[in-house]
Task: inverse folding
């Protein structure tokens, strides 16, 4: 192979790594709508939120103005254990696709939790520890967030209680064991340990659980146990703030070689990875400095951006959490059972929702067999077994690179490779055996959730 | 945390990466004994070996003299996809152990195959492709080698037939699916597809297989199908040559910061990782330039170095392979069923065996519960979930660091972290549940294999 000016993997030196998170809200002309109390329909104050969240995280959640937030030294120290993550030039993929496009991916799977979730997990655990708390509670679906939080808590000596969607708990025993190896307690949700769990089990005795239901349980346990708070791995503004480290590193690495992306692509479930990856680029776009095409890719079976409503909705099934204004399919929406992998949340980050609503980014949906085709092609070509979530971005990056092959344009395509698929091999097996199916919900199926949105605030 | 001169992770730039493999045999005064034909008890020639192995690999296998072997450009290109691997300063582990020792580990798990095996897999697949072959056959036990070879073959468009020890095939369906995702065919061994498989099944109808038996099947299939050759992930001289890239990178990284290791530690099953890690250091030792303590760590349940005999033995159960002179427990030895993870081969690399026999390195054995305790401690402290194999090295590195805490010596300890434990969570679950047990074979148990060694050559 010829000598290449741009290395396969662009790593930053320690002194090049970002020292601040970037808060994209500071540059948004239209700010994301505030969280709202479902009883009063008035914006939540810091005091309203403090039984649930850590104080410093509440401050971050509500702060729409501070552009640069210093990353505490202790978190920078932890980041050094697995960051910078590599920005990889996908030379092999380009060659296989015979495309003039230059493809880059930011690979966040090079840590034991296997995904980008660790970037926010360590931050949230750190602020909990700083506040003198005993522990934190959370929910997990596919398990990436729970694993990341368990690692962060083990590092800091915090107790960690994870409510894991029952179907995942049973189908992904290895995810559970990783969390236990890191010292976390893992409870299948719904459980008999909480009021909300008992209520849901009484109403739906055979239920295999949902993310929204596990959130309700984790929040109840946090608010009813002294010294505990609830933490969440996506959707929230604070999470996007912490995840901005992905985009900042990406931008520094690209700038180092004078590369300007034309298209930036990320998968979107609750928005944690996409929001982080795009943040500094979106900042330039918001400030009118530069334009980029930014594409969110979501599963056709859980299409909140492309088929949801932009409205206030509950984040949880138990309806004990604040309302958030977001693209939503309704808190009652549960993806079809044949849906593999994550990206199954009914809503979307309020920040990304506002940006999408304002026409600053695009969204497309992909069916899962096509996503796994892209995943397998990528694995064989680039050598990394991708998570199903990440493979949504791969699918669209390949589509865009193929378009370049037709037009002859040498576009720079950057996508987020959020994690590895080691714990998703049941789904890979279905794909390998040809038994994987797609499911695009009908309008009637979506109407159930969309027609049951809560009363909307009028402020 | 304070500013540190030595970064958490020492990465090499592309231009610092090794361009040659290093052949430690060139510096050995006493060369490893040659492979021998079990029928004639005479050394195997290249012509004898050519029905089984690729020509260029045979040349490498037999070459005890060439010190530096250029790494072909194509392989350097592939290495760039996942190399250099980081050399990590274990700051967190040092702090937790309160030791003045400086601990470094070379982490080879940052690729989808999850281990160092890929370094030799791509080399062997490359030479097979270069020879114009259609495909290769191999065996796999724990699955690291099979996964690595599948990835390498997918990259080069070679067919790959893997014979997987039946018990692993059944207990590790996810390993199997990764290999299938990379396009390999995976057959549980013993199978009805081969003469040797049928013979073993007839004699032992309920057998769950062994590595030695899977080797026999893979060799038979390679030699009876035109356009196929057999490849092996450990034991052989050629494998140690390819794996020298681990040690070379380690040495370059240490030299960059003026660090001289006092102790170098690696786990040892067939010797592929240990042989690669230590090679340039052993070279200095053999040339009298510098001294190092070098420690091999093996499972107490499969103790070839510490309780085996240094003698000619078969590498496979079916006794169709050449004889190798090595530390061996006898080709009939099968580790106790409670043994988790790899490192279950009855023999050991002839190169390492000779070096050990000549007093140039030490060997210790570790029991598996102690190994998993070290693994869990390491995971919680350093954030990486280690493979059980690698955890043998972790255990002894921690022991040595604790000794430094007692004596106050600031030794530099380097160990090989060969891979990740994502596919070993059944074993972690046993450990987490407190149901994992140890088994140290009795002298009587070992005598069965040790007393059945083949006739020894007299040349």
Result:
């Amino acid at each position: 192979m010829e000598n290449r000016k741009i290395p396969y993997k662009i790593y930053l030196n320690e002194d090049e790594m970002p020292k601040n998170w970037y808060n994209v809200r500071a540059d948004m002309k239209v700010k994301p709508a505030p969280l709202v109390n479902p009883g009063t329909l008035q914006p939540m104050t810091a005091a309203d939120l403090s039984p649930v969240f850590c104080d410093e995280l509440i401050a971050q959640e509500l702060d729409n103005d501070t552009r640069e937030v210093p990353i505490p030294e202790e978190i920078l120290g932890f980041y050094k254990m697995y960051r910078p993550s590599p920005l990889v030039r996908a030379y092999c993929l380009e060659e296989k696709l015979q495309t003039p496009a230059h493809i880059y991916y930011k690979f966040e799977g090079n840590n034991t939790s296997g995904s980008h979730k660790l970037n926010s997990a360590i931050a949230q655990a750190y602020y909990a520890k700083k506040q003198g708390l005993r522990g934190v509670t959370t929910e997990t679906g596919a398990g990436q967030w729970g694993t990341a939080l368990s690692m962060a808590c083990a590092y800091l000596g915090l107790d960690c209680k994870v409510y894991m969607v029952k179907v995942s708990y049973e189908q992904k025993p290895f995810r559970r064991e990783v969390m236990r190896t890191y010292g976390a307690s893992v409870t299948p949700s719904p459980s008999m340990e909480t009021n909300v769990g008992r209520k849901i089990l009484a109403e739906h005795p055979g239920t295999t659980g949902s993310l929204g239901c596990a959130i309700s349980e984790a929040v109840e346990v946090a608010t009813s146990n002294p010294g505990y708070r609830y933490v969440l791995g996506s959707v929230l503004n604070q999470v996007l703030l912490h995840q901005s480290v992905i985009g900042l590193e990406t931008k520094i690495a690209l700038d180092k070689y004078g590369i300007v992306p034309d298209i930036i692509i990320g998968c979107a479930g609750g928005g944690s990875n996409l929001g982080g990856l795009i943040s500094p680029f979106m900042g330039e776009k918001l400030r009118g400095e530069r334009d980029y095409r930014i594409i969110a890719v979501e599963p056709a079976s859980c299409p909140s951006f492309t088929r949801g409503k932009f409205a206030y909705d509950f984040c949880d099934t138990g309806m004990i959490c604040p309302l958030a204004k977001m693209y939503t399919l309704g808190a009652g929406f549960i993806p079809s059972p044949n849906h593999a992998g994550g990206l199954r949340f009914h809503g979307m980050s309020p920040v990304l929702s506002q940006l999408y609503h304002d026409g600053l980014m695009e969204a497309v949906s992909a069916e899962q067999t096509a996503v796994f085709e892209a995943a397998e092609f990528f694995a064989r070509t680039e050598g990394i077994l991708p998570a199903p979530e990440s493979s949504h971005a791969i699918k669209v990056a390949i589509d865009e690179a193929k378009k370049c092959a037709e037009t002859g344009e040498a576009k720079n395509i950057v996508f987020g490779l959020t994690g590895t698929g080691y714990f998703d091999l049941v789904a890979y097996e279905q794909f390998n055996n040809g038994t994987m199916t797609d499911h695009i919900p009908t309008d009637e199926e979506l109407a159930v959730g969309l027609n049951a949105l809560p009363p909307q605030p009028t402020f």
Observations:
- The first strand of chain B starts at residue 9 and ends at 10.
- Residues 237-256 of chain B form the longest helix (20 residues).
